[in-house]
């Protein structure tokens, strides 16, 4: 039995290899569809292992240290005394300082003070050229800083607070961000005050014994969030475990990866399967001859299945080799894209082997249905070139309905904050599989409406229905591409819209701390405003209750709400400012209205946060008898800025409430977002004033416009990436389907040409074939993508559902239109005459 199986497979592989060589065009098409994902996946897993894995990320942050200790110097010395004998420490400090630019201006930049060559710093720095700084007059620059200053080894720069001349002795990049323009100085050098100092610690013996000792009287206690305490003393200890992402975050990332990989694999399987279906149909006489000489259905099917094995193995080998070669050749480019260096290159052998195995498996899965169909086909029909009808579509349709129902129910179960990301993935995959299973029946049903269309559309639709399995595979591939893009676009929009709420000030406005206004003085504030496209520059005054320092107030009914999204942002904008018309103009960007000015004169409040106002009143202060409510006029609705005041009262009202005005932010309201050169000029004015102050204190100020704070990838960038991916896959799927359909319609088109059909007929038929594929696939993908997106948004409390109609139209309609246009543009309009097989 084993010998027969091995011999059968050996013969099947030999036949498949010769068939692939004989049909080079189709073989190259299938090979490319399998090779490109294998190549991309190999490059990604190798790059991930070297620049983005958890182990690498920890090395970029804390190097080879077991723990990083941060505290006041006296506290650090006390904690170090508790370390086991033989432990090593390396000092490290991070701060900001002032650097003189070649243009004559000044800029604030980050600097780190440590010994980058110490073994504990291994992985945190990359020495590109020169040596590490050793003396107080030496400095190393990151590549970005060297490029900005136009400085190289041996040059001198001016940096520090106050300024001093330093000699550049090395180019050293910081691993956590290659884009960071920074300086590196020896550990005992301070370029400015206020640097955050810490110690990198190599704990002797088992680090966990010291890092997490048993709790007891007088012993160090670890609270699980990096905070430690002992006998009323506290410090911060950061170890590798505390830097690792939470389990919930890792589960979410794994689920997102699984969803993306499953959708991508489905696209490849479906496209490749369509090509195998055409190949099996072309081989039907050859396969029938094998059956005629005694081959059983399994042996006939193995010939087709062996084609998937052969082409999958070739694609896996070539794709993996090309991926590794690309990684070796474009290392600097990968570093720039990842924003991390490649240190101690390693090849994740098991991951690369897994990609190769997955490629072979995809080839086998893609060939399975054509192999099953070929093995069960009637012998006489195959020898005679006849097609047979199958009622299996109804069975697949039933399975598809079951999967769609199950996927919907699963997503409903997952669509709550305490749901599980695994259920979202399972529901999304079930929806995609349900759409795929039901597509053949849908294609055959749509074919019955062909009589409603003109000639070209009628021929294309009937041909698609006649070859419904191949058409359904291409339609399902388009559906998978569109569904993935729609789902991620909706999730990105939900997260992006939620992030829109978390803003410090209006776009383009400049907020500076109160110390900056004090350093500048009235004349300096005027010069700063002149350097910017400023409408006004106002030093805000904040009202505080001297009996409750640090307290901010809002209406009690607002404070007790459970808020998320925009409402949570509104709960942060609750500061009380003291001022008049100039404050209203600075905060809102417009002149004060008569109602607002009358409210201030009459002892009422002006609210810049409409959620603080309940029944026309806002809490102005909290006294012994509870909140003191003031009548309020709402000046701004629906926009919330965390660093701008939520309420404005007059000077007299503040005194009546027992509030004391103190210096607040310097707010520069601009007519537009300042240009980089304007920001640089304003920063120079501010830093010159700071350096001229006696004594020079604190970290340098930087003039930056307020902007939306978006965690992680910018949703707009992700949207453009998804739009491109969707367009590429949709166009590829439609062109593959059109190419396969063209090969099957070659005889029919030749006959039409022989009887006098115009060249434009072929172009219209080809465009109609592409329109059938994308016209069915895009709407199905839209429906399949909404489900997992809705489940994720309901699961993620930080996302607010939005419907970006413009972006959805771009993802769904533009690739479909582009595919149809390209299919009609690049088709051969004058096919040669072909002799029918007879």
From TrEMBL:
Instruction: Output compositional bias ranges, type Polar residues.
Output: 230-239
User: What InterPro entries does the record point to?
Assistant: ABC3_permease_C, Macrolide_Exporter_MacB
The record describes its membrane topology as:
Multi-pass membrane protein
The answer to whether the entry has keyword Membrane is yes
Looking at the keywords, is Protease present?
Answer: no
Localization in the cell: Cell membrane
**Family indicated by similarity:** Belongs to the ABC-4 integral membrane protein family.
Q: What name does UniProt use for this protein?
A: ABC transporter permease
> From which lineage does this chain's organism come?
Bacteria, Bacillati, Actinomycetota, Actinomycetes, Micromonosporales
């Amino acid at each position: 039995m084993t010998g027969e199986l091995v011999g059968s497979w050996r013969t099947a592989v030999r036949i498949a290899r010769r068939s692939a060589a004989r049909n080079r065009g189709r073989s190259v098409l299938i090979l490319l569809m399998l090779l490109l994902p294998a190549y991309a996946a190999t490059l990604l897993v190798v790059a991930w292992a070297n620049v983005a894995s958890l182990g690498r990320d920890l090395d970029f942050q804390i190097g080879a240290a077991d723990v990083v200790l941060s505290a006041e110097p006296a506290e650090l010395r006390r904690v170090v005394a508790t370390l086991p004998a033989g432990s090593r420490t390396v000092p490290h400090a991070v701060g900001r300082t002032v650097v003189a630019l070649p243009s004559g201006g000044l800029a604030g930049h980050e600097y780190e003070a440590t010994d980058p060559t110490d073994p504990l710093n291994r992985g945190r720095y990359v020495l590109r050229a020169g040596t590490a700084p050793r003396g107080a007059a030496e400095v190393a620059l990151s590549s970005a800083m060297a490029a900005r200053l136009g400085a190289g080894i041996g040059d001198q720069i001016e940096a520090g607070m106050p300024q001093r001349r330093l000699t550049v002795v090395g180019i050293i990049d910081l691993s956590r961000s290659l884009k960071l323009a920074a300086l590196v100085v020896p550990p005992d050098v301070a370029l400015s005050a206020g640097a955050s100092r810490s110690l990198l610690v190599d704990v002797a013996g088992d680090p966990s014994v010291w890092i997490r000792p048993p709790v007891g009287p007088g012993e160090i206690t670890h609270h699980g969030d990096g905070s430690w305490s002992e006998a009323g003393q506290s410090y911060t200890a950061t170890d590798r475990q505390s830097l690792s992402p939470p389990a919930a975050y890792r589960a979410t990332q794994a689920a997102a990866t699984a969803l993306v990989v499953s959708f991508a694999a489905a696209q490849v399987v479906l496209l490749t399967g369509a090509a195998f279906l055409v190949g099996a149909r072309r081989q039907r006489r050859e396969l029938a001859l094998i059956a005629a000489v005694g081959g059983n259905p399994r042996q006939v099917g193995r010939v087709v299945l062996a084609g998937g094995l052969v082409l999958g193995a070739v694609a896996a080998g070539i794709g993996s080799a090309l991926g590794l070669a690309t990684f070796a050749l474009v290392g600097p480019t990968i570093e720039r894209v990842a924003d991390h260096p490649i240190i101690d290159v390693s090849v994740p052998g098991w991951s690369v082997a897994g990609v190769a195995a997955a490629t072979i498996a995809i080839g086998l899965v893609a060939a399975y249905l054509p192999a099953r169909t070929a093995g069960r086909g009637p012998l006489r029909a195959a020898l005679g070139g006849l097609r047979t009808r199958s009622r299996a579509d109804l069975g697949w349709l039933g399975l598809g309905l079951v999967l769609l129902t199950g996927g919907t129910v699963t997503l409903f179960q997952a669509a709550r904050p305490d749901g599980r990301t695994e259920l979202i993935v399972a529901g999304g995959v079930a929806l995609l599989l349900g759409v795929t299973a039901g597509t053949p029946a849908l294609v055959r049903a749509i074919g019955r409406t062909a009589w409603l269309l003109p000639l070209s559309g009628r021929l294309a639709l009937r041909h698609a229905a006649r070859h419904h399995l191949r058409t359904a595979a291409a339609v399902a591939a388009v559906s998978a591409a569109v569904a993935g893009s729609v789902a991620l676009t909706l999730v990105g929009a939900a997260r992006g819209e939620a992030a829109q709420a978390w803003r410090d000030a209006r776009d383009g406005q400049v907020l500076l701390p109160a110390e900056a206004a004090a350093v500048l003085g009235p004349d300096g504030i005027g010069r700063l405003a002149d350097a910017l496209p400023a409408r006004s520059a106002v030093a805000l005054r904040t009202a505080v209750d001297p009996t409750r320092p640090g307290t901010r107030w809002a209406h009690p009914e607002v404070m007790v709400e459970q808020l998320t999204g925009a409402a949570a942002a509104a709960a942060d904008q609750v500061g009380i400012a003291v001022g008049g018309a100039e404050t209203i103009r600075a905060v809102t960007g417009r002149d004060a209205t008569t109602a607002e000015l009358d409210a201030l004169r009459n002892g009422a409040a002006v609210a810049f946060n409409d959620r603080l106002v309940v029944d026309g009143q806002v809490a102005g202060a909290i006294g012994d008898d509870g909140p003191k409510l003031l009548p309020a006029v709402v000046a701004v609705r629906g926009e919330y800025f965390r660093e701008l005041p939520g309420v404005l009262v007059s000077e007299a009202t503040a005194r009546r409430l027992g509030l004391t005005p103190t210096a607040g932010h310097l707010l520069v309201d601009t007519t537009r977002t300042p240009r980089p050169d304007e920001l640089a000029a304003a920063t120079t004015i501010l830093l010159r004033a700071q350096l001229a102050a006696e004594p020079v204190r604190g970290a340098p100020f930087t003039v930056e416009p307020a902007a939306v704070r978006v965690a992680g990838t910018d949703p707009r960038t992700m949207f453009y990436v998804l739009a491109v991916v969707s367009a590429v896959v949709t166009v590829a799927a439609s062109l593959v389907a059109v190419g396969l359909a063209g090969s099957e319609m070659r005889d029919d088109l030749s006959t039409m040409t022989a009887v006098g059909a115009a060249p434009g007929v072929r172009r219209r038929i080809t465009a109609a074939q592409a329109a059938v594929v994308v016209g069915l696939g895009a709407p199905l993908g839209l429906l399949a993508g909404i489900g997992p997106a809705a489940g994720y948004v309901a699961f993620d409390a930080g996302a607010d559902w939005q419907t970006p109609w413009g972006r959805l139209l771009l993802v769904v309609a533009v690739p479909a239109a582009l595919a149809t246009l390209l299919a009609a543009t690049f088709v051969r309009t004058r096919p040669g005459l072909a002799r029918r097989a007879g």
